[in-house]
Structure formats: C-alpha cells, structure tokens
Amino acid sequence: MKKSILLFFVFISFSVFAQIEDAWVYLTDKQNVTASINNPISILTQKAIDRKNKHGVTIDARDVPVNEIYITQLKNATGITVLAKSKWFNAVHVRGIETDIQALTDLSFVDTIDFADKSLNSKSVVKKGKKKNHSKLENTFTIFNYGDASNQIEMFKGDELHLAGFTGTGMTVAIMDSGFTNVNTMASFQRLRDAGNLLGSYDFVNREVNVYTGTNSDHGTFVLSNMAGYIENEFVGTAPDASYYLFITEDAPNENPVEESYWVEATERADSLGVDVINTSLGYTTYDNPNYSYTQADMDGNSAFITKGANIAFEKGLLLITSAGNSGNDSWGIVGAPADAPGVFTVGAVKANGDYANFSSKGNVTQPNNKPDVVAQGQASYVIGPDDVIRTLNGTSFSSPILAGGIVCLWQARPLDTNTEIMDLVRQFSSQSSNPDYSIGYGIPDLEMALSFLSLNSDINENIKIYPNPVKDKLYLELPSEENIISLRVFDILGKEVEANSFSKTNKEINLKQLSKGLYIFKLTSNTISKTFKIVKQ
User: Fold this and answer.
1) Can you identify the CATH homologous superfamily of domain 16-31+67-123?
2) Which 8-state DSSP code applies to residue 436?
3) What is the model's pTM?
4) Which of the four pLDDT bands, split at 50, 70 and 90, describes residue 509?
5) Domain with CATH 3.40.50.200 in the chain
6) Which of 118, 156, 239, 393 could disulfide-link 168, Cβ–Cβ 3.0 to 4.6 Å?
7) pLDDT at residue 463, rounded to an integer
C-alpha cells in the first residue's frame, strides 16, 4: 500500500513540475499539391485568385493546406495539444511536455521541431537532417464631416482621397486583434453592417466565429473604429466603405508565442479570402516565459516566426500595415515583430501637431530597412469605444489603422499597383522622404500628392521612350520622328524646379547624378507635345 501511494505521489509530482513547452512542428509534405495548383479554386477564393493574377503573384505549394490526416495524428499523440497550423510553413504549433514533443520525431511525416525555448533546440532531434528554410519570402462622391476625427485624417490628406471618390469601396481589409466587443450591435458600425461590408469574423484563439462577446479586450473595437467607424457629423473612419474581416489572434491575458502562430494562420486565411490589406496593431518581443522571449538582436526582419510569416504574406501580394509599438520610452526601445519585417509597412506615432510622440518605438540598424516607415497621429487619437462613446487614446495601435484606411483608399485609386509600389509611393510622398530617421521614418505622408501622381504616366506618347526608370545617373530619351527638340523641366515633389534642360535627336541624355534620391516630376514640352511623368532617382 505504501509503495502504491509512493508511486502515485511520484507520478503526480512529475506531472506538476514537468515544464510545458511550445514548439513548431514542421511537416515533410502535403497532399495533392500539383492538382491543387492546377485547380486553384479548390484552395482559394476567386477573389484571391484574381488579386494574385492582377499583381503577378504565383500560386504555389505554400497555398495548399496542411495535411489534415497529419494534424489528426498529432492531436492523438500522447500529451500533445495542437493550437494552430500554417500552410505557408507547413507547420503546426503544439504544446506539451518536452519529452512528448520530442517523441513526435518518430512520426514519419514530421520533418523538424523548433521549440519556442531556443535552448531546447540544441538537444532536439532533427530526424530528416538539415532543417529546411521554410520562408522565401463607379465612384460615389461623398463629403464627410469628420468631427473629432478631422485632424487625424487631414494630417496625411486622406480626406482629399474621399473627396475624389475613394473611400475604400471594393477593397477588403482584415484586422488582426484581441476582441471586437459590440461591433455587431453598435450604432457606430451600423453603416458598415447595412452596407454588407462586415464580411466575416473568427476567433483563432478559441476557435469560434464570435468575436463580439466574451472577449478579453475591447482593443479591436477601438482599432476598427479608426477605419470603419461612423457617427454622422461627429466621427468618420479613414476607409468607411471598405469591406472587413475581423480576426482575433491575440490571447489578451497571456503572452505566449502561440499568438504568433494564430496570426500567421489568420493571415493565410485572409490571403485565401482575397484580402488586400491587413492591419495589425499588435507586436511581440518578450513573453511570460522568459525562455521564449526575443532579444533586440532578433528584431532583424527574419527571425521571429510571425516576421517570417509576414514576409511570405508580402510575397503573396498582401499589403501589411502594422503599428511600430509603444516602447520608445522603455528599455526595449525598438520596433518589435512583425513590424521589423521588410515586407511590413510600419507606422509610428506623432502628436496632433505632427511632432514625434516619445512612446513610439524606434528603428535601428538591426532592421534591414528603415523603421518605422512613416507616422500618423497616435497621441490623443480619437476612437469609438464599445459603448458608442468617442474618446481619445494613445498608441501606435491607432496611428496604424488611421493611416491604413488612407492607404486602402489610395490603393483603390491605383488598382494595378503592387503592394511594393504602394509602399514606395507613400514613403516618397512623405515629409522627410529624402532623409528618413529612426523616430518618424520617412515622415508624415501626403496622400493627396500621391493621388495626384496617378495620371502622370498614363498619357505619355508611346513613341517617346524614357529609360531607365528608376535611374541612378543618366537618363535617356528617344523622340518620335516628327520631333527635333523637347525641353525638359524637373520638379521635386514639393513643386520646386530643380533642373532644366533639352533633348534632341543628337543629344539624348541628361545627367541626374546631382539629384538626391526620391521621386521627381518631369515635364516634356515641344511645339506639339506637353507631357508630364514621374522618375524615381535611386
């Protein structure tokens, strides 16, 4: 009897004190890959297929779902809980005791295991040898009274896009957040619901469609209001006529890397649904278990799981707009994941007067490109709460969706542009485009200027050839046969003339070495031609 009690005590002690770990289990293969790629409607929506085709995005094996038979076997494995899955990485996020996770290597379809506690990876069995690199990475014209939200949209002239008829119509946005309390009943979102623009929702944490009640946070409600909220004569979001999916990926009471996996899984779903833009007002740096935490050196644009997922999403044609973070005043200081990704458009915060908000996380040399990309109002930002009351809150959580809505409207106006071209355009038409820094990046965008740039290349005579563009030093011009001389004037994005010259059939080049990097407006004039176009100086 004593022996039985002792054995029972030992078993209970082991169960209590054994460390529960998180890990990513990478799988060896997928089912029906070739057939799925050849018949993409079997794995993607038509809207997703159309978006990829429009922007030249290849449908490949990463778009094929994870093998559900493998997932079932993992769920049935001893001590294993499956929390999330990723088709792009062909991986599953699991939780369990270390030994139970290590035992998964006995399964023939398990390729490698990557523990969130990196110290465990040195003793992890990699059955298949060297670990794979899994990452490659008609308009309605509306005049709004923005009320309290006026300054935060007028700062980047997003209101001018609305006046031009671009309010987000036809664009699809996914918002990744922690809870959208009362969005399904609030008067502030009645306009959104009545238009049929609330397309769907899903809680990836609790695996249910309800994201409106019983959530641990109202954060998503505030964020959505910046883009889609509407109270007549009091508040208008920056993309009021876009369509939205609402996804919970943040487990608000806890900090655990499974939230990164939820985000990647949600982003994959967004891609398959044909979403154009994703706003993420979340960031990941340190966790409740310090063994899982990242270091500042890990914010290098391709180390964190969520960052690698973001880079794939960018490669898939999505435009990812993400808050920089609120660590400007603390010891962490720099942007976190996934804002460190080169494929993410990172938004910092300024005050209502345009000055840097000192809580806004900064960039540094660790990132492969300048972070933040740009800024918008994030201090004393106006939002709508779940009680339909307008209030102010501080944080890059709000500067990101405020600007994201404006960029959604810009992309509506430039439907043939790629995500890269939209990002570059916004950077170049920002207040300090020629001299970005680590506090406010390229500065405050001017979307009116970016919009006015729309038609500049549309009417160039096909007989006029201007190359290369972008240009480093020398620009060349080929004239139609009936033209002998064309004058050229060059203006910067503020309208200041910076160069004047002429071309002829014998003098066909101009040296632009003296110009700083950036966008320039070139005006060609002759007796029969008057054309305006853009040149990017590298």
Assistant:
1) Malonyl-CoA ACP transacylase, ACP-binding (3.30.70.250)
2) -
3) 0.81
4) confident
5) 150-452
6) 239
7) 61
